[in-house]
Design a protein that fits this description.
With about 425 residues, the chain is α+β, with helices and mostly antiparallel strands. The chain contains eleven helices and 23 strands. It binds zinc ion. The site of zinc ion (ZN) has 8 residues, from loops.
Length: about 425
Amino acid sequence: MLQSELLAKVSKEAPKDEKSVNAQFLTRAGFIYKEMAGAYTYLPLGFRVLRKIENIIREEMENIGGKEILMTIFQPKSLWEETGRWSGGVGDIMYKCDDEGEIGLGPTHEEMLTDIVRHYVSSYRDLPQYIFQIQTKFRKELRAKSGLLRGREFSMKDLYSFHATKEDFLKYYKRAAAAYVKVFKRCGLSSLMTEASGGDFTKDFTHEFQVLAPGGEDTVIYCPKGHFSRNKEIAGDLRGGQKCPQCTETLKEAKSIEVGNIFPLGEKYSEAMKAYFVDKDGQRKPIIMGCYGIGPSRTMGAIVEIHHDERGIIWPKEVAPFRVHLIQIGKEKRVAKAAKDLYRSLQKQNIEVLYDDREDKTPGEKFAEADLIGIPWRAVISEKTIKKNSVELKERSKKSLRLVKINQAAKYVK
Ligand SMILES: [Zn+2]
């Protein structure tokens, strides 16, 4: 992609109405455009990152048997009345959008999918089922002040599992938890599987995936050895500084961002909506369910909260909008030709490149913008480098520069 063709321009000024690190950097660097509190448009750079996060999630959900569907955002009142959730709890954070108040904009999709499953599943032979979607969700959110961390309109991957037995459910719950750790690791996030209360969904145990970040809205109490973590809201008497319940280590307390959660739903929805199946013994039983959520847009915000310095974002490789930021310094014909040739050659080798071909920017401005945008590799072509038939490479996360032969550049950045 040519930087000269990008619609969004980088801004030196932080937006005045944004307090969070993620919204400030993402707005300044031209990844997102704020429409209103808690609702953002993803510009070309931002949409590339969001799609990469979604594709990582998609791959890992397919690895644990997930089948992708796309449900409607419109949700009929009648389904929500079956579970008694149209009013109160989740129903109260739902936008109701037609004149008669009969249609809600999906804040979550348990009712919708339980309805679909009861239509198709009748026997134990039809189970288990693992169904997911990546969908825009809507929630009335009073505290939409943290950029992508807390949206009124946001992206969500929600997977729902349906089982004949509790044992089968528990086995899958563990597989899903392991897949979650993998998703976040690929996104450059080290997550803590954290015990939490059920919120609106269930009174049973649930788990959140928290990443430590000073800009987070949650607080976790955790063992630094990594085998214990609990949300402070439900930690009871447990405090940082006390001994870990499982080893001799001292517990720590820190701010964190919830990037995912997994919930046992038991028979709550299947009982209420009569989603039954006939078991091997001929008995009619309610389907046992689980629900597994990850917010791709919130994950994008969390990545920025953690991976940045004073100059800008430092994208982890797998989610970066591009692999290489190629910067041309100088307008001389042979410099432009060398840069264009490298641009085409990297693209031919399937290496994603943002090519700063602009002629009205100083080298200083170009470098500052590259640091703000945060692409993993910076490659500079100038009069000086082409004299040596070379390109100057620098990793965004490191200080050192290296001059390598132009035809060797692809090998370095791969
Ligand atoms: Zn411990």
